[in-house]
Each structure stands twice: as C-alpha cells, then as structure tokens.
Amino acid sequence: MPAPGKTKGNSWEREVATFLTDLYGEPFVRVPNSGAFIGGKNVHRKTALSAEQIRGFKGDIIPGPSFKNLNLECKFYADFPFHQVVQGSCKQLDLWIDQVMQSADPTDINILAMKFNRKGAYIAFESRNYPPCNTGNNYIRYMHQARGPWLVLDYSTFWQLNHTAIKTLAS
Question: Which residues contact 130 (CB under 8 A, 6 or more apart)?
C-alpha cells in the first residue's frame, strides 16, 4: 500500500492529466510509477531511448500527441512557504524547479503544477516563455540562482489565459 503522501501526489497528477485532456481534447496521462526515470542521476537513460520514449518519461504527465515539447511536473503538499518566494529565496521551489529541468530539453516548455492544502493550485513556468504567455495582473516573479527567472501564478488563471499559447509553444 503506497504512503499517504504518494497517494496524494498521484491523485493530483491524475487531476492535472484529466483537466488537460478535457481542455485540449487530447489524451494526457499520468506517467505510471512516475518519478525520475530519465531525470537526475538517470539522465544517461536518454541515450538509449527514442524521442517518443523520452517524451513518455519526462515529468509526471505524458502529454497529448501534439505537445511534443511539454515537460510537466506535479507537486501536492500540505503547506508551502510563499513568504520565501516573495522574499526571493525558497529552497523547496528551487528543488522542484531543478527536478523539472533535470529531464528537460532546450526546446521544452517546462511547467510546474503545484497544489497545497487549503491554499489552492498554482503554476510556475520559465519566464523565457513570456510573452506570448500571459500572466494577468497577479503573479510572482521568482529568480532561481541557476535556472533564471520563473513566474508563479494561479493554476486556473494560467490555463485560462494561456491554453492556446502553450499548445503553440509545445507543438
């Protein structure tokens, strides 16, 4: 039986996959036994895999067929230190951004989908994709020491404002 935290994370991954399937009308699927199959210390595995296989093991979600350059990681935690993000140094967010980027290719659109108990859901994405991505009026600009600037905003707002742009960028 999986640990409660793993079950919680899996449910968020399924929720994101279902949301994107409904949004785009293409199948988005949670990566079975998701984890760093080609990220982190396992990046060497990419040399033995085809482009399609690599695409299936990036992040936590296997994107729909027209999203060749989408790399999406999901995190669901009880709490998050938003004050550290605003102050400009959040080790937890740095770690998650590093995880997203470990399996990324230079042309990927890298997205971190985060959900927190009683706080809601949020998206973090590289600001190199802005524009054409739209943030609306409410976002936080976060500077990762090694990965550069990222933007953090409300999950629903992000997809409402950017569903067309993300499809274009990730094609």
Answer: 151
Spatial neighbors of 171 by CB under 8 A, at least 6 apart, are 66, 67, 68, 69
Q: Which residues contact 162 (CB under 8 A, 6 or more apart)?
A: 133, 134
Rg of the chain (C-alpha set): 15
Segment 84-95 shows an average pLDDT of 96
Burial class (CB in 10 A: 0-12, 13-18, 19+), 10: middle
Cβ neighbors of 55 (< 8 A, separation 6 or more) are 62, 63, 68
pLDDT at 69 over 60: yes
Question: Can you read off the two tokens belonging to residue 31?
Answer: 């990566």
Task: Confirm if 74 and 124 have CB atoms less than 8 A apart.
Answer: no
Amino acid at 63: P
DSSP state of 48: G
Q: Which residue has the tokens 């400009």?
A: 88
Distance CA 144, CA 138 (A): 19
Between 58 and 68, residue with greater pLDDT: 68
Split at pLDDT 50, 70, 90, the class of 130 is confident
Tokens describing residue 130: 């802005």
* Max Cα distance, the chain (Å): 44
Residue 76, both tokens? 């669901």
